[in-house]
Records
---
Amino acid sequence: MTMDSSLTQAQLASIRASALKADFPLLLAHPELAFLDSAATAQRPAAVLDAQRHFYETMNANPLRGLYKLSTEATQAIAEARAHIARFISALDDAGNPQQDAIVFTRNASEALNLLSHTLSHLVELGPGDEVVISVMEHHSNLIPWQQVCTLTGADLVYLRPNTDYCITQEEIERKIGPKAKIVSVTHVSNVLGVENDVAAIAARAHDMGALCVVDGAQSVPHIHVDVRALGCDFLVFSGHKLGGPLGIGVLWGKPDLLDAMPPFLTGGEMIDLVTETGAVWSQVPQKFEAGTQDAAGIYATDAALTYIERLGMQAVEERERLLSIYLCERLREQPQIAIIGPKEGERHISSISFDVEGVHPHDVASILDMHDVCIRAGHHCAQPLLTYLGWHSTCRASVAFYNDAGDIDRLIDGLNQVWRIFHGSR
Amino acid sequence: MEVASLYSEQFMDHVAHPDYKYELEDATHVHDGVNPSCGDELRLAIRLNDSGRIEEASYTGHGCAVSMASADMMSDLMVGKTPQEALALCDLFKGMITGSEKDEARLAQLDEAALLKDVSHMPARVKCAELAWRTLAEMLKDEGDSGATTTE
């Protein structure tokens, strides 16, 4: 099938099949499926589903509230998950201990970003003349909250823009992040283009200008080792479901002193120390940000998802996904009717690759691929300003995860040839 | 699978060689319809004759194959219909693509547009298929008021 691949025979052999599919009940039950939409949500390994069930069968109680053993176990499970997540993103204190109290659980990454936009705008007293800097690559979840905050406070929203090589250059970073910047919030990896932004350089510039730096890690944490100390950011958000955890768990990590200084976002049960008829004293972080009953089973299962990935080894995951991304990019490039929207080099794609089939609307592409049991995303990918900036209305997007193999990608290519035959006759 | 039959030769013929995709010179009614998230944009025009029947219908715009083929089939079907008949057909079409109307005899009234029946198995594509029909219904209900319709 493959023509001139830059991959060696050994590398191609290593991605020819995927033994890991056996760990995923849905993929096992549907061998006909080529699932290439992990950027939207990943499949879950049996270990995660088992963990969720184990929680309800053996330690189900409302965490933090009860004074009996079950509730204590649930509370302990959440605390351990916090520590595990902190280690996973290298959020360690000076003594090398995980900053478990700096891990806040939300429903998803979007909620974490809403929490940040609300609380940080108060913390930095955002107002007219101030600037919030984001990039034009943002998913709507890291765009609309800042747009709203700027509308409410009178601050200006400034956009970092990539050059024609899809790169946000150092020059652009220095031009856009100036002394008026109070908050900088950028995506680590674009969910449309798959490119990695130099968030370490962005964070450094933000700090030089006295601004805070938020990193949206929704598309990076599942695919590459993210070390918040190396990035130098103040906050990182991501969602558990994109790395194999259950739906409904978002994660916010923040520098402890900043989290302490921030006001709460949602208020109510379990986020207070004391309540009177006229006021309340907030709990310590992280409880201050976690009003109401937490999805303890989901948090416990997210912990299991990290354990599963660590068992594979993040380095092995990265390397396999790198090979798959290169193979996907090269196979797409072989098709004359297909234009890649983003870098032409497979190495520059972290899991996601957007493309266009000449003269065929992406929704038609996705529908025809679906009849071949190939799952891709088509549309604006919740990044309308980016698509408008690039001059597209919608694109097709395929995204790989470590459980995919070259066969899934070959199925995509076969399906795309079928799309072409339907719209333009035989090639 | 059902989707295979949706993109049939007959369907694709409406995409590749539309019969009604042009500007109508002496239109009596014009109405715009959009699907913002899909990028489907449609301008629908009809000419009502003195006896109150649709003498000609046409459309311009761009979008996915489902939205464009649907507009072409609808334009063909509407020729000679009264506004009341046209509105009844719009309802019937909506029933078909949302899966609530399955009576083959009734669906036969939709003529070629019955080819889009399989959209009822593709919920994500319903708004593509219904764009032209909703635009027509809005147009006829608005009685010539040149507004815009969105199916979102």
---
Amino acid sequence: MRGLWTMVANDLRQRIRDKSVFIFSLIVPLALMGVLSLVFGGLGDDTVDLQPVTVVASADDADQLGAALLGAVESLEIMDVTIKRVPAPDVRGEMQASGAELGIIVPEGFSDAALSGQAASVQLLEGSDATLESGVLISVVQGVVDQISAGTVTAAAGGIAGLPHQDLAALAEQAAAGPALLTLTEGQAAAEQLSLRGTLVAGQAGLFLMFTVGFGVLGLLAEREQGTLARLRSMPVTAVTVITAKACTGFILGVVATTVLLTAGSRLFDVSFGSPLVVAALILCVATAATSLTFVVARLVRTAEQANVAQAILAMVLGIAGGAFFPVEGTGFAATLLDLNPIGAFIRGLGISAGGGTLRDVTGPVAVMLAFAAAGLVLSRFLPDRGAQA
Amino acid sequence: MDVAEVTAKDVLDVRGLVRRYGDLTAVDGVSFHIRAGETYGLLGPNGAGKTTIISMVAGLIPANEGSVRVAGRDMTPSETEAKRVIGLVPQELAIYPDLTARENLKFFGRLQGLTGKDLTRRTNEVLELIGLSDRAGDLTKKYSGGMKRRLNIGIGLLHRPALLILDEPTVGVDPQSRNSILESVERLSVEGMAVLYTTHYMEEAERLCDRIAIIDEGRFQAEGTRDQLITLTGGVDRINLRGGGSTALAAEALRALPAVQHVDSDGSGLMLTVSDGPTALAGIVTGAGDAGMSVTSVEIVRPDLESVFLHLTGKALRD
């Protein structure tokens, strides 16, 4: 063990001294995060400010359900809605004149029809330029109408069953007054999805981890080229100790760099990844997976230069496929492949963590990363060492 | 480990060593041994198999056949105990450019098992020995080629190995550093260290080595002390006479002398093969003059390892 840690300490000292690890593992990714944040500037802001809208509506003041529908639209908390009441024939003209985003025409006798189980249609007119606000309003109207429809269907069913007319109305009112089928609340879109800035920070951290761990095992190739590997192998340390020391170096650098990147990224870009414990577990797992991949690369290449190229290609492929730059989705076999990507699993895990997930909740991503690490180690055992044959 | 702790008579015992790379047999049945205080040279041209032998002796690669025992222990790539008593100085520089000389020495010293005050003391001693004490704190990437070479050797000496293996340590070194390296090796031998030294420089082998193996195409062509090897050529000297006049008549006259074995003419003079050149020289110059040759210069070429190599392999050492 003494020989192992002597070599690890020596490698770390050299990496720190030549500054390359700082450049490629910290400065470049942080700079890239900043640039990408500027490029996707709009996307970088997770909050959406809905603009005030004007709705032109036609409804009989005495129609209870029609009034309730317009009331639901007017009382939305997420945006400021102004309703202009006009007769039904004037709705279209008023919309053009005022530039309103939406027109709503509630037919006469809407409540009576709904309560007696008869068909009735609410007409929606969208402005010439569809906006996010008009889309939201249409969804709200749709939700209220669906709820009213439930009452209509209930009343119709009661009619078929032969219930008295007054009972049908009461039943329809009861169904329509049930719990809201559509609610709008602010918060995360989905539990497993990081914000765009969060994805950017996590993705870049995962991507550059692939480069950082390369300073370890791939350093073996550099040692072979500079002659020190021959000297190490003439020392009273086993070949396994030498390789393990290199792996430890890469792993330690990877864990430290990723931790620093996530910490700095979360501060600089105002992102939270949730429980530090869960994040730490994810970092350890993804660093293990990335380190195992360097064993495979080290077996396949002959020179340090080839190793750097191969590592860069793998990092970019896994990084892009994992969503380091933008979300990537697939179906069928492609989706399965994407799910097995350790960087993708890392970002997924951070998404779960950011959504309040615990260690148990990230079991899936953790399993993917550890399985990837095991596969890499096994594969490297069976691959011929092309560098040694050179 | 101190040299004195090694009790085995032969520090290195190599028997029937064979190493193949596909169809190529790089080393073919090599056997030799080295005792404490002895410097043993492997002399041969580039590609003769010297470095392959060294690699097996140092446990870097396995032998296909044969055995290597160092201080009584079998040496294989997975053997760590035998590696404690060797010090390897590879042909290529094997130092870390981003570390200082002191850091390089301490790192390799720790791997060899040195710790604490022992490590510090030996580091300082070696820095003094290789003349780098005043530059010990500088990064080695700022060193000259000669300084790097000296450090390369110093690392091999740090733990006082019973067997020091030097693989062409003076390649690419300036004359001053080269002389310094050779003096260091001579001192180590006197101190009782066994040294295995490979070179393709005949002068180095002659100066340093108690015994020499001449190697070509993976096989030992001959082995012994310098004098033993010289006798393989028949112990004859070469005398070159330069001048004008009747060289043809002179050649005829000199062939009649008892010490002269062979005479060649190249137009500008005569080349004679003689036994005991210094003794025969006076009679040869007189005979040539008497036959009408005006001698302007005389050169006696004593047999050397180059001659031995030429004699044994039919080619020059640096071909």
